[in-house]
């Protein structure tokens, strides 16, 4: 089915628009843009050069996709902003494209970005994440699948959040937040295993106990992170989730958040 495009939208003839899209008045789309099938683009949205968008996304009023990176190192290179499928991007969201030639900012699929969210240059976001009102993700961050950011969370540059983690409202963090946990406060601290969402993602009770035991070694032990990680390998039964915890801990360059 042909797309329904308002004559009041300003769309470059070079842009590629898929089938069955609905584009409202006062939308602005530049030359080097690709939009997949079934997308809905509400009024006053700007989709700028370098954007590659999948299908069935809903982009609400005032959002800017593929905005120039807010990075002093940017020299006008050709970079991309990759958006997956079936995302809901609410009002006044800004997603920057990458800084350096060949770079990508990536937002996966089935994410919900609430009003005022900002995803900065070179960030990589997984699938099924929720970003609460006014959340700001600085450049070069990595956000795992199924993470939840409450309102007004600030992730400082280069930090990582493991899959299934939840960050409480108003939290600012500059170190990595491991998978499957709740984090919050000022300064940010470990607040336990995110059992509700882990169960929702199908992690069984036995594995949940193993995850809790792993984090007791990390956050309540008297050893270094290196020693705690070795203790996890030796003492906690193996599973896909435990391997993800160990892999995250052993590859952290920023260090991880503190214990309670």
Question: How would you describe this structure to a colleague?
Answer:
- With 260 residues, the chain is an alpha/beta fold.
- It is 17% helix and 27% strand.
- It has helices spanning 195-200, 205-219, 225-235, 240-250; strands spanning 4-5, 10-11, 16-17, 22-23, 28-29, 34-35, 40-41, 46-47, 51-53, 58-59, 64-67, 80-83, 88-89, 94-96, 104-107, 112-113, 118-119, 124-125, 130-131, 136-137, 142-143, 148-149, 154-155, 160-161, 166-167, 172-173, 181-184, 189-193.
- The strands form three sheets. The chain has an eleven-stranded mixed β-sheet with strand order 1-4-7-10-13-16-19-22-25-27-28. Strands 2-5-8-11-14-17-20-23-26 form a nine-stranded parallel β-sheet, with no helix packed on it.
Taking all residues together, what is the mean pLDDT?
96
Distance between the termini: 56 Å
Main sheet record: 11 strands, mixed
Characterize the overall form.
elongated
Discrete helix count: 4
Output the strand order for the largest sheet: 1-4-7-10-13-16-19-22-25-27-28
Rounded Rg: 20 Å
Number of strands: 28
Low-confidence stretches: none
Concise summary:
By secondary structure, the protein is α/β, with parallel strands linked by helices.
What is the fold's blueprint, element by element?
Elements: E1 4-5, E2 10-11, E3 16-17, E4 22-23, E5 28-29, E6 34-35, E7 40-41, E8 46-47, E9 51-53, E10 58-59, E11 64-67, E12 80-83, E13 88-89, E14 94-96, E15 104-107, E16 112-113, E17 118-119, E18 124-125, E19 130-131, E20 136-137, E21 142-143, E22 148-149, E23 154-155, E24 160-161, E25 166-167, E26 172-173, E27 181-184, E28 189-193, H1 195-200, H2 205-219, H3 225-235, H4 240-250
Parallel strand pairs: 1-4, 2-5, 3-6, 4-7, 5-8, 6-9, 7-10, 8-11, 9-12, 10-13, 11-14, 12-15, 13-16, 14-17, 15-18, 16-19, 17-20, 18-21, 19-22, 20-23, 21-24, 22-25, 23-26, 25-27
Antiparallel strand pairs: 27-28
